[in-house]
Design a protein that fits this description.
Structural class: mainly beta
CATH architecture: Beta Barrel
Number of strands: 7
Radius of gyration: 15 Å
Number of helices: 1
Shape: globular
Distance between the termini: 17 Å
CATH topology: Thrombin, subunit H
Largest sheet: 7 strands, antiparallel
Helix content: 10-25%
Number of domains: 1
Length: 104
């Protein structure tokens, strides 16, 4: 999976932040489709249509908020807060989840 980390490089004429993107390969990310109930819930809460949920590996230090990701030959954008579990209590390799929407 390719994560495009955002770095603020300045501001535009309207003082909105301008970002540059740096591609980073992240290994061992699980991708799962989102349930129909979650799609409706996210649409009502955030105005975004969740397509997939990404499970992030333990020890991952990347900031995923608002970043673009690529997998399955398509681009997606991370939205909403990350859900994080207590790392020592999770027996598997993943302890955080983020949702993504289709991005073109």
């Amino acid at each position: 999976m390719t994560l495009y980390e955002r770095t603020r490089t300045g501001a535009d004429a309207f003082n909105a932040p301008v970002y540059s993107e740096t591609p980073v390969t992240v290994e061992n990310v699980l991708v799962s489709p989102v349930s129909a109930e979650a799609i409706v819930s996210d649409l009502q809460l955030y105005g975004k249509r969740a397509v997939y949920e990404l499970c992030l590996p333990k020890g991952d230090t990347h900031d995923w908020a608002g970043c673009r990701v690529e997998f399955f030959g398509q681009s997606f954008r991370v939205f909403g807060p990350a859900q994080e579990l207590i790392e020592s209590l999770v027996p598997l390799d993943w302890n955080r989840k983020v949702k993504v929407e289709r991005y073109e």
